[in-house]
Specification:
Number of strands: 7
Oligomer: single chain
Strand content: 5-15%
Shape: globular
Structural class: mainly alpha
Number of helices: 6
Radius of gyration: 18 Å
Distance between the termini: 36 Å
Order of helices and strands: EEHHEHHEEEEHH
């Protein structure tokens, strides 16, 4: 969980372990050894987080798409992860509302509120009205990663976060730039 400058909270990929992955120890270690010692911990953590994202090792996570050592996964707020969590919060809210008991109703409201807060924060942070597209966000600065558009931009449409106008703009960009 990260707190943005405006106080809103969103999620990122993270791993507590600052060392090479057990399943890929040798290649991780060799890449890490090419970095200054002070940067290795961050590199290993980013490697682990990238592997857990399901997008391993996409150029989506690299400042330099040709260099795996430039992973910045833990510095990014992924638009798809937060869209999925929005959907999970709405689903939990709906299940609790259906059960209808008083503690379930307060829980339902709690999850519905969390979902709406996430939606508002993600729309404000990740949607770029100039390009009509959703981007991952560098959470420390609030900068959208506009140089690396990805198919992750479709997830706010799929899970119902995007407004109809945003949906049309993103769909047009996906058709133009991604469908071949």
């Amino acid at each position: 969980v990260v707190r943005l400058r405006d106080g809103s909270v969103l999620n990122r990929y993270w791993d507590d372990r600052p060392d090479p992955r057990p399943e890929s120890h040798k290649p991780d270690f060799e890449l890490g050894a090419a970095l200054p010692e002070a940067q290795r911990t961050t590199f290993y953590r980013n490697t682990r987080a990238s592997a857990e994202s399901g997008w391993d090792f996409s150029s989506r996570w690299m400042r330099n798409p040709a260099d795996l050592r430039t992973l910045e996964t833990t510095d990014l707020i992924p638009v798809d992860l937060n869209s999925l969590l929005y959907h999970a919060e709405r689903t939990i809210s709906a299940f609790r509302r259906r059960r209808g008991q008083s503690d379930d109703l307060s829980g339902s409201l709690q999850f519905a509120t969390a979902a709406e807060n996430r939606r508002s924060a993600l729309l404000a942070a990740a949607y770029d009205p100039e390009t009509g597209f959703f981007y991952d966000v560098r959470w420390r600065t609030g900068e959208r990663v506009t140089d690396r558009p990805t198919l992750a931009a479709a997830t706010p449409l799929y899970f119902g976060l995007a407004t109809p106008e945003q949906g049309r703009a993103v769909a047009a960009r996906l058709e133009r730039d991604f469908l071949k």
